[in-house]
Amino acid sequence: MTDDLEPTGASEGTVAHEPIGDPGLPEHQWRPTDVDADLERRAERQVSTLFGLGALLFLGFCVAYFTVDADQTFLGWNGQNFALGATFGGGLLLIGVGIIQWAKKLMGDHEIVEERHPSASSDEDRTAVMIDVNAGLNESGIARRPMIRNSLLLSLGALGLPVIVALRDLGPLPHDQRRTVWKKGMRVVNDVSGTPIKPEQLQVGQLVNAEPAILFEEDADGERVLHGTEALQVKSKAAVIVVRMRPEDITPSKGRENWGVDGILCYSKICTHVGCPISLWEQQTHHLLCPCHQSTFDLADNGKVIFGPAHRPLPQLPLGVDSEGYLIAMSDFPEIVAPSYPELARDQKKLDKNS
């Protein structure tokens, strides 16, 4: 039985087997595209068409992103999500099907037997691998099939367009959004019911989550009514809290003596650390706590930071009362409403200069 075994440079104590000359594989069957030039060209056109359609779907993704309304519905689904998913997923599917068709019909088709070898490859093995890789590239026909190569490159290049376009959903940088929708005369309304607030409705120690009335008013005064995603974006940036304290407990800084109404003050709901919504209110101490990283602001002392990682006071909105007795804003926030970022100090100086 040992006549069929022969050492071939194996390590001591082991015996290497010579490969079987005929492992019993059936006779190779050539594919139609291997023997018929017309079928080969037809397959090449099919693969190129799949890649080209994939590129068109990626372009369709970009078109749908800008043209399909985010609030539109289609068969009960969000219309924009459906359009983006269908075009992007369809493009990936067509590329995958095209590559499979390319491999099945046009790439080299023959059996390969590889001997087992030690895990540490020798220089000769590495050289052989590169020879095989180059041979595979030659057999794939990518060099002599420019139609397939170019259409694949086109499709893969178009694949990057949806990625670039989708980055827009990360939103504008904070220093490009220096103002909120608040302006003089705009009513402060409850963020749940949308009803305007009168000073006598608030008790000492009470906190109310509020927002600008523009989100709920009709377009009676020429103002553009906001709906859907745009309204939610404006609401999130302009969200405020309204608190009432005893006037004698408040220590306003110079120039802010008239920013409140009978002890009622209004501050941004956005923490100046990383932008978390903040409304944990301590009535007795007049402190407002952020639930994310425990930054603490003293609302009786101009929103001053007294604890935590925040470095800027909470922006305060100056308040007044209109002719019907409802709380209104007297202007927009004088400070930038946003989490802290390196360019904030520079942008705040520019904002103060232009104000």
Give an account of the 3D structure.
It is a multi-pass membrane protein. The chain crosses the membrane at residues 50-68, 80-100. InterPro entries: QcrA_N, Rieske_2Fe-2S, Rieske_2Fe-2S_sf, Rieske_Fe-S_prot, Rieske_Fe-S_prot_C. Keywords: 2Fe-2S, Cell membrane, Disulfide bond, Electron transport, Iron, Iron-sulfur, Membrane, Metal-binding, Oxidoreductase, Respiratory chain, Transmembrane, Transmembrane helix, Transport. Its cofactor is [2Fe-2S] cluster. It is a single chain. The N and C termini lie far apart (98 Å). β9 (296-298) and β10 form a beta hairpin. The chain contains seven helices and 13 strands. Residues 1-14 have low confidence and may be disordered. The protein has two domains: 29-112 and 123-170; 174-354, Rieske Iron-sulfur Protein (3-layer Sandwich), CATH 2.102.10.10. The protein is α+β, with helices and mostly antiparallel strands. Strands 3-4-5-6-11 form a five-stranded antiparallel β-sheet, with no helix packed on it. A four-stranded antiparallel β-sheet has the order 7-8-9-10, with no helix packed on it. The chain has helices at 32-35, 37-67, 79-105, 123-140, 146-166, 228-238, 344-354, and strands at residues 73-74, 77-78, 188-190, 207-212, 240-244, 264-268, 280-282, 287-289, 296-298, 304-307, 316-317, 319-321, 327-329. α2 runs antiparallel to α3 (79-105). It is 35% helix and 12% strand. The protein is elongated and about 100 Å long.
